[in-house]
Specification:
This protein is about 40% helix and about 15% strand. It has helices at about 15-35, 60-70, 90-100, 115-120, 140-155, 170-180, 210-215, 240-245, 250-255, 275-280, 285-310, and strands at about 50-55, 75-80, 105-110, 125-135, 160-165, 185-190, 205-210, 220-225, 260-265.
Length: about 300
Protein backbone atom coordinates (compact mmCIF):
# COMPACT_ATOMS: atom_id res chain seq x y z
CA UNK A 1 0.00 0.00 0.00
CA UNK A 2 1.16 3.52 -0.78
CA UNK A 3 0.22 6.83 0.81
CA UNK A 4 0.22 8.31 -2.73
CA UNK A 5 -3.43 8.00 -3.81
CA UNK A 6 -3.55 10.38 -6.78
CA UNK A 7 -4.63 9.36 -10.28
CA UNK A 8 -1.94 11.41 -12.04
CA UNK A 9 1.52 12.81 -11.30
CA UNK A 10 1.43 16.27 -12.86
CA UNK A 11 3.28 18.38 -10.32
CA UNK A 12 5.19 18.31 -7.05
CA UNK A 13 3.12 21.26 -5.87
CA UNK A 14 0.37 20.08 -3.55
CA UNK A 15 2.04 16.83 -2.47
CA UNK A 16 2.59 16.14 1.22
CA UNK A 17 5.83 14.97 2.87
CA UNK A 18 4.19 11.59 3.51
CA UNK A 19 3.24 11.20 -0.16
CA UNK A 20 6.73 12.11 -1.30
CA UNK A 21 8.34 9.73 1.19
CA UNK A 22 5.99 6.99 0.00
CA UNK A 23 7.14 7.44 -3.61
CA UNK A 24 10.80 7.55 -2.56
CA UNK A 25 10.46 4.43 -0.39
CA UNK A 26 8.91 2.47 -3.26
CA UNK A 27 11.64 3.71 -5.63
CA UNK A 28 14.32 2.74 -3.11
CA UNK A 29 13.08 -0.85 -3.23
CA UNK A 30 13.61 -0.89 -7.00
CA UNK A 31 17.23 0.29 -6.84
CA UNK A 32 18.46 -3.05 -5.48
CA UNK A 33 16.22 -4.92 -7.94
CA UNK A 34 17.71 -3.02 -10.88
CA UNK A 35 21.24 -3.82 -9.77
CA UNK A 36 20.66 -7.57 -10.03
CA UNK A 37 22.57 -9.22 -12.86
CA UNK A 38 19.56 -11.33 -13.88
CA UNK A 39 15.79 -11.45 -13.49
CA UNK A 40 15.33 -7.68 -13.64
CA UNK A 41 11.89 -8.08 -15.19
CA UNK A 42 8.76 -8.29 -13.03
CA UNK A 43 5.21 -8.96 -14.20
CA UNK A 44 3.49 -6.45 -11.95
CA UNK A 45 2.14 -4.50 -14.92
CA UNK A 46 1.53 -7.43 -17.27
CA UNK A 47 -1.27 -6.52 -19.67
CA UNK A 48 -0.88 -2.76 -19.09
CA UNK A 49 0.08 -0.28 -21.79
CA UNK A 50 2.39 2.68 -21.18
CA UNK A 51 2.68 5.24 -23.97
CA UNK A 52 5.43 7.86 -24.18
CA UNK A 53 4.17 10.98 -25.93
CA UNK A 54 7.17 13.31 -26.21
CA UNK A 55 6.87 16.57 -28.15
CA UNK A 56 10.45 17.53 -27.25
CA UNK A 57 13.70 15.61 -27.61
CA UNK A 58 14.70 13.51 -24.63
CA UNK A 59 17.30 10.86 -23.89
CA UNK A 60 17.19 10.24 -20.13
CA UNK A 61 13.52 10.74 -19.35
CA UNK A 62 12.02 8.86 -22.28
CA UNK A 63 14.50 6.00 -22.17
CA UNK A 64 14.13 5.54 -18.41
CA UNK A 65 10.33 5.52 -18.65
CA UNK A 66 10.56 2.93 -21.42
CA UNK A 67 12.95 0.81 -19.39
CA UNK A 68 10.85 1.23 -16.23
CA UNK A 69 7.70 0.08 -17.98
CA UNK A 70 9.39 -2.94 -19.56
CA UNK A 71 11.03 -4.01 -16.30
CA UNK A 72 7.59 -4.03 -14.70
CA UNK A 73 6.19 -6.17 -17.53
CA UNK A 74 4.12 -3.50 -19.30
CA UNK A 75 3.77 -3.01 -23.04
CA UNK A 76 5.54 0.26 -23.88
CA UNK A 77 4.83 2.37 -26.97
CA UNK A 78 6.99 5.32 -28.00
CA UNK A 79 4.95 7.56 -30.28
CA UNK A 80 7.09 9.36 -32.90
CA UNK A 81 5.50 12.82 -32.84
CA UNK A 82 7.30 13.98 -36.00
CA UNK A 83 5.26 11.47 -38.01
CA UNK A 84 2.04 11.61 -35.97
CA UNK A 85 -1.24 13.24 -37.01
CA UNK A 86 -0.26 16.35 -35.03
CA UNK A 87 2.27 17.06 -37.77
CA UNK A 88 -0.75 17.21 -40.08
CA UNK A 89 -2.54 19.77 -37.94
CA UNK A 90 -4.40 17.64 -35.39
CA UNK A 91 -4.83 19.40 -32.03
CA UNK A 92 -3.46 18.10 -28.74
CA UNK A 93 -7.01 17.52 -27.49
CA UNK A 94 -7.97 15.49 -30.57
CA UNK A 95 -4.83 13.43 -30.13
CA UNK A 96 -5.76 12.86 -26.47
CA UNK A 97 -9.30 11.78 -27.39
CA UNK A 98 -7.90 9.39 -30.01
CA UNK A 99 -5.45 7.84 -27.56
CA UNK A 100 -8.16 7.61 -24.90
CA UNK A 101 -10.27 5.51 -27.26
CA UNK A 102 -7.43 2.97 -27.36
CA UNK A 103 -7.77 2.34 -23.58
CA UNK A 104 -4.21 3.09 -22.52
CA UNK A 105 -3.24 2.68 -18.88
CA UNK A 106 -0.55 5.37 -18.56
CA UNK A 107 0.39 8.29 -20.75
CA UNK A 108 3.80 9.91 -20.16
CA UNK A 109 3.85 13.36 -21.77
CA UNK A 110 6.56 15.93 -22.44
CA UNK A 111 5.40 19.15 -24.06
CA UNK A 112 7.01 22.55 -24.76
CA UNK A 113 4.02 24.49 -23.41
CA UNK A 114 3.49 24.95 -19.68
CA UNK A 115 0.14 23.53 -18.61
CA UNK A 116 -0.36 21.37 -21.70
CA UNK A 117 0.04 18.11 -19.77
CA UNK A 118 -2.55 19.13 -17.18
CA UNK A 119 -4.98 20.05 -19.96
CA UNK A 120 -4.45 16.68 -21.61
CA UNK A 121 -5.00 14.86 -18.30
CA UNK A 122 -8.49 16.37 -18.11
CA UNK A 123 -9.43 14.71 -21.41
CA UNK A 124 -8.34 11.11 -20.81
CA UNK A 125 -9.33 8.29 -18.48
CA UNK A 126 -5.84 6.85 -18.02
CA UNK A 127 -3.14 7.98 -15.61
CA UNK A 128 -0.98 10.84 -16.89
CA UNK A 129 2.61 11.53 -15.85
CA UNK A 130 4.21 14.89 -16.54
CA UNK A 131 7.54 14.23 -18.24
CA UNK A 132 8.25 17.97 -18.34
CA UNK A 133 5.99 20.80 -19.55
CA UNK A 134 7.54 24.02 -20.79
CA UNK A 135 9.18 25.92 -17.96
CA UNK A 136 6.58 24.68 -15.46
CA UNK A 137 7.51 21.36 -13.81
CA UNK A 138 9.34 18.06 -14.15
CA UNK A 139 8.15 16.08 -11.10
CA UNK A 140 9.95 12.78 -11.66
CA UNK A 141 13.28 14.62 -12.01
CA UNK A 142 12.77 16.23 -8.61
CA UNK A 143 11.89 12.83 -7.13
CA UNK A 144 14.98 11.14 -8.53
CA UNK A 145 17.15 14.02 -7.31
CA UNK A 146 15.59 13.66 -3.86
CA UNK A 147 16.20 9.90 -3.85
CA UNK A 148 19.83 10.44 -4.87
CA UNK A 149 20.34 12.92 -2.03
CA UNK A 150 18.51 10.82 0.55
CA UNK A 151 20.53 7.69 -0.24
CA UNK A 152 23.82 9.59 0.04
CA UNK A 153 23.04 11.98 2.91
CA UNK A 154 20.42 9.99 4.80
CA UNK A 155 17.92 12.83 4.86
CA UNK A 156 16.55 15.89 3.07
CA UNK A 157 15.44 17.98 6.04
CA UNK A 158 17.96 20.58 7.17
CA UNK A 159 20.25 20.31 4.15
CA UNK A 160 21.40 23.43 2.32
CA UNK A 161 20.89 22.99 -1.43
CA UNK A 162 22.19 25.53 -3.95
CA UNK A 163 20.53 25.41 -7.38
CA UNK A 164 22.71 27.25 -9.88
CA UNK A 165 22.38 28.41 -13.46
CA UNK A 166 19.44 28.99 -15.76
CA UNK A 167 16.67 29.13 -13.15
CA UNK A 168 14.45 31.24 -15.40
CA UNK A 169 13.85 28.55 -18.02
CA UNK A 170 14.17 25.48 -15.79
CA UNK A 171 11.22 23.23 -14.95
CA UNK A 172 13.73 21.07 -13.04
CA UNK A 173 14.49 24.00 -10.74
CA UNK A 174 10.82 24.67 -10.04
CA UNK A 175 10.02 21.06 -9.15
CA UNK A 176 13.14 20.75 -6.99
CA UNK A 177 12.48 24.00 -5.15
CA UNK A 178 8.97 22.83 -4.37
CA UNK A 179 9.99 19.34 -3.21
CA UNK A 180 12.97 20.47 -1.16
CA UNK A 181 10.88 23.09 0.64
CA UNK A 182 8.16 20.53 1.38
CA UNK A 183 10.77 18.17 2.82
CA UNK A 184 12.40 20.80 5.04
CA UNK A 185 15.58 21.63 3.14
CA UNK A 186 16.96 25.16 2.80
CA UNK A 187 17.17 26.23 -0.84
CA UNK A 188 19.39 28.87 -2.44
CA UNK A 189 19.27 29.90 -6.09
CA UNK A 190 22.39 31.30 -7.73
CA UNK A 191 22.34 32.90 -11.17
CA UNK A 192 22.92 36.12 -13.07
CA UNK A 193 20.05 38.60 -12.81
CA UNK A 194 18.97 37.80 -16.39
CA UNK A 195 18.43 34.11 -15.57
CA UNK A 196 16.35 34.52 -12.41
CA UNK A 197 12.56 34.94 -12.51
CA UNK A 198 11.13 38.10 -10.97
CA UNK A 199 9.89 37.42 -7.44
CA UNK A 200 11.73 34.10 -7.10
CA UNK A 201 11.91 34.70 -3.33
CA UNK A 202 8.16 34.03 -3.13
CA UNK A 203 8.96 30.35 -3.77
CA UNK A 204 10.79 30.20 -0.44
CA UNK A 205 14.38 30.47 -1.64
CA UNK A 206 17.40 32.66 -0.94
CA UNK A 207 18.56 34.64 -3.97
CA UNK A 208 22.25 35.03 -4.83
CA UNK A 209 24.18 36.49 -7.76
CA UNK A 210 27.62 35.35 -6.63
CA UNK A 211 28.63 31.68 -6.69
CA UNK A 212 30.95 31.84 -3.69
CA UNK A 213 28.30 33.50 -1.54
CA UNK A 214 25.58 31.12 -2.72
CA UNK A 215 27.67 27.98 -2.29
CA UNK A 216 29.25 28.84 1.06
CA UNK A 217 28.54 26.06 3.57
CA UNK A 218 26.13 24.23 1.22
CA UNK A 219 25.60 20.45 1.31
CA UNK A 220 24.51 20.08 -2.31
CA UNK A 221 25.16 22.01 -5.51
CA UNK A 222 22.68 21.35 -8.29
CA UNK A 223 23.91 22.77 -11.60
CA UNK A 224 21.47 23.48 -14.44
CA UNK A 225 21.86 23.48 -18.20
CA UNK A 226 21.69 26.85 -19.92
CA UNK A 227 18.64 26.37 -22.15
CA UNK A 228 19.53 28.32 -25.27
CA UNK A 229 16.56 26.82 -27.15
CA UNK A 230 14.13 28.64 -24.82
CA UNK A 231 15.88 31.99 -25.06
CA UNK A 232 14.99 34.86 -27.35
CA UNK A 233 17.58 37.59 -26.97
CA UNK A 234 20.87 37.85 -25.11
CA UNK A 235 20.76 36.46 -21.57
CA UNK A 236 24.50 35.90 -21.16
CA UNK A 237 27.44 37.81 -22.71
CA UNK A 238 29.54 34.76 -23.74
CA UNK A 239 30.24 31.15 -22.79
CA UNK A 240 33.69 32.10 -21.48
CA UNK A 241 32.38 34.88 -19.26
CA UNK A 242 29.45 32.78 -18.00
CA UNK A 243 31.78 29.94 -16.98
CA UNK A 244 34.13 32.37 -15.28
CA UNK A 245 31.39 33.67 -12.99
CA UNK A 246 28.81 30.84 -12.80
CA UNK A 247 30.46 27.66 -14.08
CA UNK A 248 31.28 25.12 -11.37
CA UNK A 249 34.99 24.51 -10.83
CA UNK A 250 37.08 23.45 -7.83
CA UNK A 251 37.76 27.03 -6.79
CA UNK A 252 34.04 27.72 -6.33
CA UNK A 253 33.47 24.25 -4.87
CA UNK A 254 36.04 24.95 -2.13
CA UNK A 255 33.63 27.11 -0.12
CA UNK A 256 31.12 24.27 0.25
CA UNK A 257 31.18 21.59 2.93
CA UNK A 258 34.00 19.07 2.40
CA UNK A 259 31.53 16.25 1.65
CA UNK A 260 29.19 18.35 -0.52
CA UNK A 261 27.59 16.55 -3.46
CA UNK A 262 27.63 17.70 -7.09
CA UNK A 263 24.49 17.21 -9.19
CA UNK A 264 23.33 17.98 -12.74
CA UNK A 265 20.10 16.78 -14.41
CA UNK A 266 21.76 16.54 -17.83
CA UNK A 267 22.52 16.97 -20.56
CA UNK A 268 25.68 18.76 -19.44
CA UNK A 269 27.57 21.41 -21.36
CA UNK A 270 31.10 20.75 -20.11
CA UNK A 271 33.25 23.85 -19.87
CA UNK A 272 30.12 26.02 -19.90
CA UNK A 273 28.12 25.11 -16.79
CA UNK A 274 30.58 22.70 -15.18
CA UNK A 275 34.25 21.78 -15.42
CA UNK A 276 34.85 18.23 -16.68
CA UNK A 277 37.03 17.22 -13.72
CA UNK A 278 34.31 18.35 -11.32
CA UNK A 279 31.56 16.53 -13.22
CA UNK A 280 33.61 13.31 -13.15
CA UNK A 281 34.75 13.56 -9.52
CA UNK A 282 34.22 9.99 -8.30
CA UNK A 283 33.99 11.02 -4.65
CA UNK A 284 31.51 13.90 -4.88
CA UNK A 285 29.70 13.84 -8.21
CA UNK A 286 26.41 11.88 -8.17
CA UNK A 287 25.44 12.73 -11.74
CA UNK A 288 25.55 9.10 -12.87
CA UNK A 289 23.63 8.02 -9.79
CA UNK A 290 20.89 10.48 -10.76
CA UNK A 291 20.45 8.61 -14.03
CA UNK A 292 20.26 5.29 -12.18
CA UNK A 293 17.74 6.64 -9.67
CA UNK A 294 15.63 7.87 -12.58
CA UNK A 295 14.74 4.33 -13.63
CA UNK A 296 13.84 3.33 -10.06
CA UNK A 297 11.69 6.42 -9.49
CA UNK A 298 9.81 5.93 -12.75
CA UNK A 299 9.22 2.28 -11.93
CA UNK A 300 7.74 3.35 -8.59
CA UNK A 301 5.50 5.98 -10.16
CA UNK A 302 4.18 3.58 -12.83
CA UNK A 303 3.65 0.85 -10.23
CA UNK A 304 1.74 3.11 -7.83
CA UNK A 305 -0.42 4.89 -10.41
CA UNK A 306 -1.54 1.67 -12.07
CA UNK A 307 -2.22 0.12 -8.66
CA UNK A 308 -4.39 3.15 -7.86
CA UNK A 309 -6.34 2.57 -11.09
CA UNK A 310 -7.01 -1.06 -10.24
CA UNK A 311 -8.46 -0.37 -6.80
Amino acid sequence: MSAFRHKHLLSIHGLTPVEIESLLDRADSYVTHNRETANKKKNLLHGCTVTNLFFEHSTRTRTSFELAGKRLGADVINMPMATSSMSKGETLIDTAVTLNAMHLDVLVVRHPDSGAVTLLAEKVNCAVINGGDGTHEHPTQALLDALTIRRRMGRLAGLIVAICGDILHSRVARSNICLLNIMGARVRVVAPQTLLPTGIESLGVERHHDMRTGLRGADIVMMLRVQNERMSGHFIPSIREYFSFFGLDYAKLSVMKPDALIMHPGPMNRGFEIESDVADDVERSVIREQVEMGVAVRMAVLDILIHNQRK
